[in-house]
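Dear support,

I submitted the protein below through the web form. The confirmation email said the job was done, but the results page showed an empty box. After a refresh the structure appeared. I'm attaching both so you can tell me whether what I see now is the final result or a partial one.
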Amino acid sequence: MFKKILIANRGEIALRVIRTCREMGIQSVAVYSTADAESLHVKFADEAVCIGPPSSTESYLKISNIMAAAEITNADAIHPGYGFLAENARFSSICEEHGIKFIGASADMINLMGDKASAIATMKKAGVPTIPGSDGIIPTIEDADKIAKKIGYPVMLKATAGGGGKGMRAVWKPEDLQNAWEAARQEAKAGFDNDDMYMEKLIEEPRHIEIQIIGDSTGEACHLSERDCSIQRRHQKLTEETPSPFMTKTLREKMGEAAVKAAESIKYEGVGTVEFLVDKDRNFYFMEMNTRIQVEHPITEQVISNFDLVREQIKAAVGIPILGINYFPSQHSIECRINAEDPYNDFRPSPGFIETFHAPGGHGVRLDTHVYAGYTIPPNYDSMIAKLIITAQTREEAINKMKRALDEFVIEGVKTTIPFHRQLMDNADYIAGNYTTKFMEDFVMNPENKE
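What the results page shows now:
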């Protein structure tokens, strides 16, 4: 087992990893920028090293500074969390070169799955259902036009190096293709320094459903069932739940089998997710594979008895074989991402000083957060400050418990998305489980409920 793990991340996920390390008897090292000096992950770690100024490019994304911190603290492993360098093949490779275990995918695995076009080609070979589209990168707009006509409109242009909704454009008719092509490529170039594009058939009325998988060094994998991530705004997830209200027993088994096949076909090691789009007729198609732990992993932990995904991630990195059993949810769990944003003002970011912080509690309530009363939320990073996770025997009970917990949750001094989630829990379509990735296009915040 590892003696000391450096967590190359910040906020709640860093604190999450630190807690599991403590339970496993492993020393932890936090890294932080000057803007994060007062974050709880810095206070709770066994050691902490400042790695730079507030800018991510000079701190959490600066590999040389992180490797220096690992070397001076004698860390024998690095956990990258999610985001930042979690899916950076060069970082994974550098860790290997320095004899430090990267608790995540290998560089080859990240490269294989990180490029969307190569990932789709790999899944096709493995027999995993994929969305009809281009065979790899599209060289020119003329080629894009031919492919779009072949698969039929509407289509979706996507950046091969994309993520977070960047470099994506839906195209509904031929005359819109040129503008969409140019806009998507410009956005991809600016965001990823890579403007390569591919194309897929646009799935109408889609659900975004992902399957949690874990693989070991022997090449064996298993799944831990699904999470429904369809409530999104600008391709950013807002809330997730498991099991999905859209799922059937047969569909769950088929998607689970496909996800395991995908993982084993590339001998995947560690935790990850295989993400699918599911149409209104419950046909499912591979979308991408995330070679890291997900923000929404707690809801899976809540419904799978005695399963700590970070612990399993660490064990897989050491080389301990998995049990090889596919798991299915025994309860219902919902996660609401609490962001420092104003939901009544187009979700504008709201960094600043937290004057009051009262966490909800009670049976079936879990709160993952790195903030507290007196903490100042910096403007330099993602606006998520907490994850409220509710677990109950049924979906109806989970929604009612979430309402109660949101009513108890008090954060003063900054705007948060707590009011949005509270209104969502009263929405008739959400309560009925009748939602797709287009749900937020019609959702309107009720100003009468504004505090």
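Response: this is the final, complete result; the empty box was a page-load delay. The longest helix spans residues 249-265.
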